[in-house]
Amino acid sequence: MLVPLLVTALAATGLGFASKEVVPVVQALSLCKAENAASIIPKDGVLLGVNLDWDSETLAEHRRNLGHDPAVVVQFSDIPYDDQTWSHTTNAVTQVRTTGGVLLLTLEPHGGLATMSDEVITKLATDLRAINDQGTPVVVRFAHEMNGSWYSWGQQPIRYVEVFRKVAAAVHSQAPGTSMMWAPNYGGGYPFTGGQYAARPGTPDFAALDTDHDGALTMADDTYYPYYPGDDAVDWVGVSLYHWGNQRPWGNNDIAEQGKFLAMLTGTYSGTAGDDSPVPDFYQVYGVDHSKPVAIPETAAIYTPARGGASELDVKRTWWRQVFSEETHQKYPQLKMINWFEWKKYEIEINDDVDWRSAGSPAIRDALTQDLPVWLRYGEDLGVCR
Known about the structure:
This protein is α/β, with parallel strands linked by helices. It has a single domain (47-365), classed as TIM Barrel, CATH 3.20.20.80. The protein is built from 10 helices and 18 strands. It has helices at residues 59-66, 83-99, 118-133, 157-174, 204-209, 260-265, 282-289, 312-323, 326-331, 362-371; strands spanning 6-9, 12-13, 16-17, 21-24, 46-52, 72-78, 102-108, 138-142, 178-182, 236-238, 241-243, 270-271, 274-275, 294-301, 335-342, 344-347, 352-355, 376-377. The strands form 5 sheets. Strands 5-6-7-8-9-10-14-15 form an 8-stranded parallel β-barrel, surrounded by 5 helices. Strands 1-4 form a two-stranded antiparallel sheet.
């Protein structure tokens, strides 16, 4: 069945929702079979997605709550995986298919990069092709935050690049409805000393990460580029940007400084949380110089109910107004995907419960929906078969 190239999209005037109109949204994804991963990159506008807590909310409930289907839905999975583990992904796909959206599949090789054998990679490509053939496009975020020191695949640029390229080659050849996302951690605080997997002096990985060749790893070294797998292997680039507060120790309910979101994206942040100005301009280097669509695969503002400070509404609204500002859209057109972290969970970093959600209460939800701009694209805009 053919899907029209002009699809109905939610439109808004000012900060509120208005009537629907017909707008051109994406490149042709004209068949129910998701055969072309490039088709999900919007020519105009930004895909709005969600990191959903599947145990507390279904995708249908989220849609009823916010009044739209997210264009992107995030799922996490271990790799290698067994049938039971993969069933969680296929269950997510079943829900995503009803919304016409895209699955952002974050694959975590917790056993280490050595577990990514040829057999594991081949099985992954085959399973992704099956999802594509059922009509759901996939973006694979493989081994994210690889520049951090807290994951078993962290700070191993030589092996990481090799494995990423193998995964990308298999995906590109076997599952053309799937694309690859490279997504390091935001570089503020690099090299994240003290983590279990921090690069050790004297190793080839340490030498590769010492980009200024001074014998030490500091924020003066490029926190991103040693891990970059190459333009032919990468379809999307992504960096998660959170507002954790204005100063350490994190966890206080602080209103974000003006311009913080864009300063983090462009490597120009210097404020009460620290001087991150040595961090490279992620948007310019990878979005412009490498001509890749840029994603914010995770974002939210910290609100800790048990602590004092600013109100939940003020904390979250200040942040999302930066994330969804007209300046963000006009000045940074390569930014093509923004996913909110819709979780309420315990965070070990602050030893406390955090409510990251944008729709955890009617008051917060209603404020968000009033502020969402016209240029956001939803699941119903993509024209993917349901």
